[in-house]
Structures are given as structure tokens and as C-alpha cells.
């Protein structure tokens, strides 16, 4: 159980780290994220930038909280709360017919859609399971180096799948059909 919990903790930490780094790597990246928050159409314009900043601050707080085993329950709780809010915002925007580009990881991805909801729900479930398992994970001897390495080896590719979800979806999407051309005469 300890290694499963550690894998989930590493997965979430890597995903949130990628989100923070992607959004804060440049002024343009953060501006793109702020623009996507505004395009959701859920907030008054004056609240968009502070709410976007708060979201990035919570993402940034999750990473060190998950890195320290004693603080992991707080990290799981913060991750779950943020994922619930973000999922709710995506669902509300979709209900309003809005599909702004996903700037979840700092770059303009595909327009938000059901796959973003599924991604967030799965990450929420990882956070909730980690929160439930964290008291049990602390029992017994500490994780050994080989177990920590194995947990990282499992978490890293899963985090890459989450972070590059839009790219993978585009890669496997059916090619757009070309418009019909009239026959040559």
C-alpha cells in the first residue's frame, strides 16, 4: 500500500509541477492562461486575474506539500479541492457552449471537452484515494530506495500521459476529410 500511495503522490506532484512551470515559464504563458480563464465566461472580468493567480498558487503549494510525507494529506486535500473546482468550471463552461483552449499546462491545447473532465476526475480520484490511504502509508518501515524508484518509474510516464493528453488525442484523432474536388475533364 505504501508504494501505491507513493506512486499517486508522485503522479500528482509531477502533474501539478508541470502545470505551474508551464504557466509561469513566461509572461505570455501566464497571460494565455488568464485569457483562457476569462474565455470560460464564468467570472467578472475584474476577478479573472486574481482567480487565475490563486489557481496557480494552489497548484504551486500542492507540490511541496506532497513532497513531504507528513504534509501529504494537506497536499492531497488541496489537489482534490482544486481539481473539483476546475472540473466544475469546465462543466459549467461546456453547458454554456463555451470551449476555450485548455491552458492547463501553459500552452494552448485543444478546446476543453469531455476528455478534460475525465482527466480531472481521474486525478481527483487519485487525490481522494491518497488522502484516504495516507494515514495507512505512514505505518510500518519507511519506503526503501528500490521501492521509491519503482514508484517514480510508474508515476513519471503516467504524469507524461496526463500532461500531453491533448497532443496524444490529436495524434490519434481521425484525419480531417478533404473537401470533395470536382473531377478533371
From TrEMBL:
Query: Where does this one sit in the cell?
Result: Membrane
Q: Write down the InterPro entries for this protein, in alphabetical order.
A: Methylamine_util_MauE (IPR009908)
Question: What Pfam families does this protein's entry cite?
Answer: MauE
Q: Which UniProt keywords apply?
A: Membrane, Transmembrane, Transmembrane helix
What topology does it adopt in the membrane?
Answer: Multi-pass membrane protein
Q: Where are the transmembrane segments?
A: 74-94, 121-139, 145-163
User: Coiled-coil stretches, from where to where?
Assistant: none
**Methylamine utilisation protein MauE domain: which residues?**
1-132
Where is it chiefly localized?
membrane
> This protein is called what?
MauE/DoxX family redox-associated membrane protein
Amino acid at each position: 500500500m505504501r508504494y501505491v500511495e507513493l506512486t499517486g503522490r508522485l503522479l500528482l506532484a509531477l502533474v501539478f509541477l508541470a502545470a505551474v512551470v508551464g504557466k509561469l515559464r513566461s509572461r505570455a504563458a501566464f497571460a494565455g492562461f488568464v485569457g483562457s480563464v476569462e474565455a470560460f465566461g464564468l467570472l467578472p472580468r475584474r476577478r479573472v486575474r486574481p482567480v487565475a493567480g490563486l489557481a496557480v498558487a494552489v497548484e504551486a503549494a500542492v507540490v511541496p506539500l506532497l513532497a513531504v510525507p507528513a504534509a501529504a494529506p494537506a497536499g492531497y486535500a488541496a489537489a482534490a479541492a482544486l481539481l473539483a473546482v476546475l472540473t466544475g468550471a469546465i462543466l459549467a463552461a461546456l453547458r454554456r457552449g463555451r470551449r476555450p483552449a485548455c491552458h492547463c499546462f501553459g500552452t494552448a491545447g485543444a478546446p476543453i471537452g469531455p476528455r478534460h473532465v475525465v482527466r480531472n476526475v481521474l486525478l481527483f480520484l487519485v487525490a481522494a484515494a491518497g488522502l484516504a490511504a495516507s494515514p495507512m502509508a505512514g505505518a510500518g518501515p519507511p519506503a526503501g530506495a528500490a521501492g521509491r524508484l519503482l514508484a517514480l518509474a510508474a508515476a513519471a510516464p503516467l504524469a507524461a500521459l496526463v500532461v500531453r493528453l491533448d497532443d496524444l488525442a490529436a495524434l490519434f484523432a481521425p484525419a480531417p476529410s478533404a473537401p470533395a474536388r470536382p473531377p478533371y475533364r
